[in-house]
Amino acid sequence: xxxxxxxxxxxxxxxxxxxxxxxxxxxxxxxxxxxxxxxxxxxxxxxxxxxxxxxxxxxxxxxxxxxxxxxxxxxxxxxxxxxxxxxxxxxxxxxxx
Length: 97
What we know:
The protein has 4 helices and no strands. It has helices spanning 7-10, 24-39, 45-54, 57-79. The longest helix is centred in the last third of the chain and has 23 residues, at 57-79. The chain is globular, with a radius of gyration of 14 Å.
């Protein structure tokens, strides 16, 4: 059983919402992660209902903790000016040119 993403799918993660190779669960997890990173206070009851349709309570906790860790470590790396493999703007702040 393969776990994780293929390189091909990873290259299309920015298109998670319409790329045909992402499952409904993967799409929703990516949408949740994106909103958590950009506007966590905007996660509303509708999002929780959608999550509960596709994930168990345990999976939602695991997803939330994992996303929280990834957002936190990403911000720590930025504060420490540690090089990244890709450039993603995970805030509403404008990019520095």
